[in-house]
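Case study B.
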Amino acid sequence: MKPEINLNMKVLVVDDFATMRKIVRNILKQIGFTNIVEADDGANALQVIKEDKIDFVVTDWNMPNMTGLELLKNIRATEKAKNTPVLMVTAEGLSENVVDAVKAGVDNYIVKPFTAETVQAKIEQIFAKRAGK
Amino acid sequence: MNVEFINPFLSATISVLKTMCFTEVKPGKPFLKKDQNSCGDVSGVVGITGPPNGSMSLTFSKPSIIQIVSNMLGESFQEVNDDIKDAVGELSNMISGTARNELGNKGYAFKTSIPTVISGPRHEIRHMCKAPTIAIPFTTSAGAFVVEISFEG
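Model:
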């Protein structure tokens, strides 16, 4: 059974490439999300998270200034955002990278290249797990 | 250069273009490239740190990259603009990352740099080492592009 996902939640898409932000945004829109904001690196994302109410973060791994892994660790260390679901979308598919991300508290992980169906399934897994299903 | 490195870049290119850009590509016969002249209009270059050290580049003809990015983003493009250049960077990132993952499973611990994008007629591609460059030509229904790899050793 698919989890109920609040499609009005505010989603932050983080990637240094505008192309990938656009691809992820398009997929999120296809799924039905309507409230999507963007940041072009981890440091800017953290600023948005501190200033705004972000309900879900989709982030790249390999970014200048602050990597996705560092962003994730910062999110988990920020009282206001420590429970925010985080989906990592990255070219980093090596097992040690996955382990690092899981240890840091990532909710789910997608290795590029990916399909829209994969993104949707990973998001559904996150919210099903969070709902205890 | 270790010929074991060629196939991961070839299969990564096919996979990324098919999955992310909905574009079927056909590889041609790899050849030894002896100069730094590009085989197209816009290139992405990624440095690879090993050992062995090396680099990868993607060079697209204007018609091929316009179709590829139009497919990828669901928008129509006419020129090699900033959106197209950004997409070339991201494609370079994804293809090098996918190849690196496959080589990682074979025991190679590579790191890749943030891609650099170069455009314009007759631009040069400077690979990171002095080793021979292997070029793999590809065709799409809109035109050609080339993947180059160069590794020391």
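The longest strand of chain B covers residues 42-49. The remaining cases will be described in the next quarterly update.
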